[in-house]
Amino acid sequence: MAIIEAVPNFSEGRRLEVVDAIAQAIQTPGVYLLHRTSDWDHNRSVLTVAGEPEAVLEGLLQAVKVAAQRIDLRQQRGVHPRLGATDVVPLIPMEGIDLAGCAALARRLGQRIGDELGLPVYLYEAAATRPERRNLADVRAGEYERLVEEIHLPQRQPDFGPALVGPAGAVIVGGRPFLIAFNLFLKSSDIQIAKQIARSIRQSSGGLPAVKALGLLVDGQAQVSMNLVDFQITPPHAVVEAVAREAASLGVEIDRGELIGLMPQAALLAAAASALRLPSLGAEQVVEMAIGQALDAGVPDPL
Amino acid sequence: MAIIEAVPNFSEGRRLEVVDAIAQAIQTPGVYLLHRTSDWDHNRSVLTVAGEPEAVLEGLLQAVKVAAQRIDLRQQRGVHPRLGATDVVPLIPMEGIDLAGCAALARRLGQRIGDELGLPVYLYEAAATRPERRNLADVRAGEYERLVEEIHLPQRQPDFGPALVGPAGAVIVGGRPFLIAFNLFLKSSDIQIAKQIARSIRQSSGGLPAVKALGLLVDGQAQVSMNLVDFQITPPHAVVEAVAREAASLGVEIDRGELIGLMPQAALLAAAASALRLPSLGAEQVVEMAIGQALDAGVPDPL
Predict the structure, then answer these.
(1) N or C: which end of chain B has fewer CB within 10 A?
(2) Positions of CATH 3.30.70.670 in chain A
(3) Is A291–B32 a contact, with Cβ atoms under 8 angstroms apart?
(4) CATH architecture for segment(s) A180-263
(5) DSSP class per residue in B237-280
(6) Residue A26 has pLDDT above 80, yes or no
């Protein structure tokens, strides 16, 4: 049984009855809503769902349909950039499926959104059909307002659906690895220290691979805000160690961590293995996980 | 649905066909064998099983029966003390049941072993009927050989079954909290350092509560060998921190950890939370665990 996760982003974070309707629509049979968050300033909501691939595709199609009916990009304003009512739909491999499998599912979902809902669809990341569409920020450049003017241009031809922008805008669909959004607050109110640590640990300035980092000031406290784009390359506990070292060299300490959304079990095991000095710690050594594995293996065939 | 774990100890670690037969017998429907280990020197095997209480009691009864048929304490020799073929059967609360519930189950199992298999049974720890029987080592004092001579004495009257010792000896049954057997190897071959660290961290000499510790030399390497008898009081990552501190003060380092058997998910989460500086990290923030919770909650009623 394959399991995927999907983290669709919707351009509505204020009218919570609209988010409720989308969250209702996404929960078709076999789709489990694991997490939801809405932000007023961003005017955006993020749902986290998981389940078997076919079930999740059906739930996503229903959610995209409701979002297109209830969100009008001609009125929608927020600080977060967006191309459509359902702005972006990443599909993430969890179990029994790989990234290529999720990219194939993204193409199928994109085709259904184009054909059945009549919305323009762009494929990104692992599902991208052109190199210049791999990066989400590039696909979204100029946002909804510029897409209205440019969709007739060859370089903006959608991958599926009509080359025509309605009030619901366009949908960006793709496959990507699990992303861990993880922040570390410092015992400091100096944003320069956070910026300096971020520079020293992020891949783009020669730091840790698969780590994106920014230095921020959040409620008066310095924060290193990170995206770990491949936790199997750089897991979160390795980031904590690196930030602790850099912070110590600048004379400050980590105050606490903050996990945005969810993390995979493998990253949890890796962090515990590090704390317990048990490099080979596996799920089969954790009672509840071992029971789960035994249950999976021991379920008799239906009569 | 309640889940218990049981970790029965059998006085056979050499004739693996006997251990196989016991492991076979214990796996009645609904009993999941999670782990098994046999030791030649100890001449002892430990099985770890889990499942719903009624299923586990039935599996244990069958395993005790096979062990009594196949193990003869008049011949059995090994470095580990023992009172019977099935030496000790601890029942451990995992989910939807507490220690008192496991103690009640231990009394029911003890009664069935006494009545149906005709073996003398002693209740210990949470199930003990007398204060002097709480401690396993006290119940087992003098081992099988002394019990043969003393079972007629009032202070050795079994809790269930006949006051008569056959070749299978007696069975000790009880309820106890989850015990984590966890060792730390040091980068040293000096047993005195291991002993000194063990003294400084164990409860009995004023160290960490709910921690038992010994300093050993294992294959020429110094090891702090520990039983964490209540991981909710002192979790394994706290022990690593304490041993690391003590070791540093003696000029040595931890080499690696070693987990004997299994640990509970709550201890894993606590260790990861410490490494990631996420004090409130919960199972609902781990994708696979959140899916498990959603599946449990979302399973429709049978039609």
Answers:
(1) C
(2) 180-263
(3) yes
(4) 2-Layer Sandwich (3.30)
(5) HHHHHHHHHHHHHTT--EEEEEEES-B-HHHHHHHHHHHHT-TT
(6) yes
